[in-house]
Amino acid sequence: MESSEDALDPLWDDLDWAMGQCFMMGWEGTEVTPQIRTLIEDHHLGAILLTTKNLKTAQETARLVQELQTIAHQAGHPVPLLIALDQENGGVNSLFDEDYICQFPSAMGVAATGSPDLAYEVANATAKEVSAVGVNMIMGPVLDVLTNARYQPLGVRATGDDPQEVSQYGIASMNGYKNAGITTCGKHFPSYGNLDFLGSSLDMPIITETLEQLSLGALVPFRNAIREGLDAIMVGGCAIANAGMNVMHACLSDQVVDELLRKDLGFNGVTISECLEMDALSHDIGVRGGTVMAVEAGCDLVLLCRSYSVQLEAISGLKLGVENDMISRERINVSLKRVLHLKSKCTSWQKALNPPGISLLSTLHPTHLALSTKAYDSSITIMRDNGHLIPLSNTFHAEEELLLLTPLVKPLPASATKAVAETRAASTEHDKWIHRSSIMSGENVFRELGRLLARQRRGKLLHTSYTANGVRPVHENLINRASCIIIVTADANRNLYQNGFTKHVAMMCSMLSSGGKKKSLIVVSVSSPYDFAMDKSIGTYICTFDFTETAMSALVRALFGEFVPQGTLPGTLRKSRKVQKSRQHWLVENWNRDRDHRGLQALIKTIEKTAPPNQQSGLTGASAASFSLPFSSPDEAFEESHYVVRNSSTQALFGFCSTYYHLASATGMIGSIFVDPAKRNLSIGHSLHQRALRGLLQKPGIKSLQLGSGLPSIFLGIPMSDLSEGARLKRWFATNGWDISSPRLLYTLTIRNLSNWAPPEGLLQSVQRVSFGFDLIHGMENASSVLEHVSTHASPEVLALYRLALADAKACGIVRAKSPVDGALVGTVIISRSSTILETYMPVLHVENGENVGGILAPVVPSSPQASIVLQGLALLGIRQNKAHKSATCVLNWVSGDERDVLLGMGFDVLDAWEELSSDSEKFSGVNLG
Q1: Could you point out which of 13, 44, 566, 857 has its C-alpha 20 to 30 Å from the C-alpha of 516?
Q2: Which is it for the CA torsion 774, 778, 783, 787, positive or negative?
């Protein structure tokens, strides 16, 4: 269709026909009403906005849209209707049909995946689905920048608070929509991302940022999307009050629409007003005058969502404005041509009258369902897990009780099925800006979450709701029973009772835990991730970004370790941004002690200095000597090969990697890879990793590879103290061929004020009751039984560590636990004092500030019904020895995941955590190792 003035159909000379193209209207009801029919037939309405109240199933929607287009065609419309829909995903889906329409994450949830490509795929899939039922315009993408992210009602509907990131994901979504044949409408110009709410429903929310501030932030995504071909923009219904502008309603202001949007940003597409039926706008101006103002300001489509009488008033107001010469006929024609050009890009009568409907949707559904799962899995974000509780399958035993606490869950009959959410009456003007969806209600979703958790635990789940009434006796009783508590919050920054409840429960769990009762607390934000984003007192904090049923399913699978959550908070809170990495291949050389010793020492110090405050780098206390093992005898049978990337001119080391090979078990180990912080993201680590693998795989008879080394005990695996960094590293190693599905969890525990430590009540009696014998030996005399026990039940590194300890009789001893029946060993542990040779290879024992550090190292306790009490007995004797040696701090190193909780109950805290990875060497046989 031509949109030039010369090619306009003569029918458009009729003012009524031309004005009809300047309105977008809606109605209430799932069938065509006489009122909407009259608007199309008699008033030549050219655009319709469908909402939740119009739509049932996908099939009925296709029929409804086809009927609307048929009415227009039969009424003589030269071009089809523009049919628009809000389908933002997350909690904003006007069309919902679980059999044919897929649920995808919200805009912020998609951004949490860190993948603009995935944003494109999700938008493209969404557009294909709504296009199949006859919709030709989507009211998106949302381009608002959450300048004041924590308190804005848009929440997860927006990408985040970084203008460039909002641009990136907004444009990716826009292209996804457009490439599916749908036209796009960016919203909400100039921004709903930082509004001040005055409280009254008759007062407009206000933008107080200056034009300069808007230009540097809120306007950036609009400017970038316009440059990339955005079809339409919705102008908001907010006020603007700053030094350069005083506007009551943005969409009625020529300063905003004509000057800022058209002239300054260069937008030539279709502008759509906010709905003129909103209370504040209609009360201030009146719909008739407001319609004239909107068109005068530069709006091409005036939106009126619901009331037929108000819609007729708007039409008559615009006609009167033309008749009174307030609006020129040329002005109407400008909007007419823009709208006709927009329609030419997305529809034709052939397309409009024949929506493919269910036949296409049923074909698309399987691939879209897989995309939905992928998107939700990728969006789940673990912002903190200081207690290393995730996955629960590794830290939470089958016999323990799990408690789920969800907000405002009302009891439903057992036969209750999925229900369409009803729009609740908004309690404040702030809440009116939150788009309600036609997916399952929050209460039903949380009930389904409970079902999923119960299924995972074979029915072992406690689940109740909480309200503004706070922590009640029923909550206290359940918290006392449970070992692990999951609290769900939804916009706790606005629903302050959720914040208070969560903090109260966190305090209870802390007090109960310090009293010896295991109380693990996991807080899950299912809407705004800002609920507890900055609150470090919540140690384990997970974000899902919406509480659709699909999101809850992904949450449960993440909690129980079916996949490793990779999401990160979008915007300025994102801890690790995606960096386009160089594909350089660095020259990797063999480590030379004489040449590289000083450079390695300097590299270690550099990494230590750049570690975050109050956080160890992993290399804290290490030296260049830490990586060279002291063994030479054939029976110890360790071979070591280390590699460096260096500047041959300055002798500076850019990166270092250590590897070890144990001949008897045919196991190759990568003990460390680290890179100068100033040289990261340049593929140095990748080059070192490839060289290390190639060296190990050349060993004759090699069977397995291990990432992490217990001796030297510097990196026992992937460090997990900083969870987002650990997740990033895990993803990196997975990409480079490692199997990350079944890591071995290893912990370093500590008691910091050893002089104040006292055994938990009843522990001594429990140890004495089982009648195990405990003794302490030094040196190689009487060591044969210990070495045989360790060789049978532990790894080669542990055996090597015991040999070292036995050789250092002055500073180390071995505590043995013996069976009361036959005297056989049932457990051993190394006890060390300061100035031991082990300190070189176990930097965690390094003495700082002159304070002695006592070690309780590598407990070897085979599985048995009494294993826990044996472990406690060994640890108890180790603590006593450390106290006797005047140690200020006690470190318990090399603790497995199964042993951790037993020791935490004795008063130990987690100092560090690791995930040791193992892979069959054949897995790397097809990998290109350079």
Answers
A1: 857
A2: positive
- The number of CA neighbours under 13 Å toward the Cβ of 428 is 9
Q: How far is CA 353 from the centre of its chain?
A: 42
State the pairing for strand pair 540-543/381-385. Answer: antiparallel
1's tokens: 């269709």
**What is the C-alpha separation between 93 and 87, in angstroms, rounded?**
5
Residues 99, 100, 101: CA angle, nearest 5 degrees: 110
372/392 Cα distance (integer angstroms): 24
Asked if pLDDT for residue 389 goes beyond 50, the answer is yes
Please report, to the nearest 10 degrees, the dihedral formed by the alpha carbons of residues 366, 170, 548, 533 taken in order.
Answer: 140
What is residue 635's predicted lDDT score, i.e. its pLDDT? 52
Name the helix (H) or strand (E) containing 545: none
Is residue 849 predicted with pLDDT exceeding 50? Answer: yes
Burial state string for 810-835 with b = 16 or more CB within 10 A and e = fewer than 16: ebbbbbbbbbeeeeebbbbbbbbbbe
Please name which of 472, 485, 923 lies closest in space to residue 740, comparing C-alpha atoms: 923
Is 152 in a helix, a strand, or coil? coil
The pair of structure tokens assigned to 300 is: 């091409």
Cα separation, 432 vs 694, in Å, equals 61
**Residue 406: beta bridge partners?**
465
Q: How high is the pLDDT of residue 415?
A: 24
Q: What is the pLDDT of residue 730?
A: 84
Q: Which among 709, 722, 675, 732 is positioned nearest to 912, based on CA atoms?
A: 722
Distances (CA, A) of 471 to 498, 522, 531, 545: 10, 17, 19, 25
Coil, helix or strand at residue 233 = strand
What pLDDT sits at residue 428?
42
The residue whose two tokens read 């500076």 is 652
Q: What is the pLDDT of residues 404-439, one digit of tens each?
A: 999 974 332 222 222 223 333 344 444 444 443 333
- Express each pLDDT in 295-341 by its tens digit: 999 999 999 998 999 999 999 999 999 999 999 999 999 999 999 99
Tokens 């990494």 belong to residue: 607
If we measure between CA atoms, which residue out of 198, 196, 207 comes closest to residue 240? 207
CA distances from 253 to 274, 338, 506, 813 (A): 12, 19, 49, 82
Over residues 134-187, the pLDDT tens digits come to 999 999 999 999 987 666 778 899 999 999 999 999 999 999 999 999 999 999
CA distance to 113, 194, 393, 449, 561, per residue, from 551 (Å): 13, 27, 20, 9, 15
Enumerate the β-bridge partners of residue 246: 241
Specify the pTM: 0.67
Q: Cβ atoms within 10 A of the Cβ of 211, count?
A: 17
DSSP state of 512: H
Cα–Cα distance for residue pair 152/131, rounded to 1 Å? 31
SS3 492: coil
Distance (Å, rounded) from C-alpha 415 to C-alpha 851? 64
Rounded-to-integer distance, Cα 673 and Cα 708, Å: 10
The continuous run of DSSP H or E covering 818 comes out as strand 812-818
The structure tokens listed for 647 are: 């500047």
Q: Supply the pLDDT for residue 547.
A: 87
Residue 774 pLDDT: 93
Residue 161 and residue 128 in contact, taking contact as beta carbons nearer than 8 Å: no
Instruction: Report whether pLDDT(5) > 50.
Output: no
Q: What domains appear along the chain, each with residue ranges and CATH number?
A: 20-366 (3.20.20.300), 380-414+436-573 (3.40.50.1700), 589-740 (3.40.630.30), 758-906 (3.40.630.30)
Cβ neighbours for 591, distance < 8 A, ≥ 6 positions apart: 641, 642, 643, 644, 656
Confidence of residue 495 (pLDDT cuts 50, 70, 90): confident
Q: Of the ranges 63-77, 423-437, 733-747, 780-794, which one carries the lowest mean pLDDT score?
A: 423-437
Count other C-beta atoms under 10 Å from residue 309's C-beta.
9
Assess whether pLDDT exceeds 80 at residue 617. Answer: no
